[in-house]
Specification:
Elements lengths: L1 E10 L2 E11 L15 H8 L7 E6 L2 E5 L7 H9 L14
Antiparallel strand pairs: 1-2, 1-3, 3-4
Length: 97
Amino acid sequence: MIRLEKIDKYFSEHRVLNAVDLHLAQGNVTALIGPSGSGKSTLLRCVNLLEIPEAGSLEICDQKLTFSPNERPSRETVLTIRRRTGMCFRTSSCFRT
């Protein structure tokens, strides 16, 4: 199970994600679609903490994180979340032969 609540992400003064809520049940397949620049990749990068949200919360299985503007999760917490997630970038390096 993955749950995002009120996720905000900024790049400088530009708000990319605005109070995003999302609940993904375990065992389901979900597609995230939208136009270029709509925040799809940023949202996925927030799930595995490649980007740290400025506000909101993230829950994966039994681990819950709450974000605030001037705090970063510990390295141990980031590694724990990353062990429970995976991400394949759209470059061909994911499919080397």
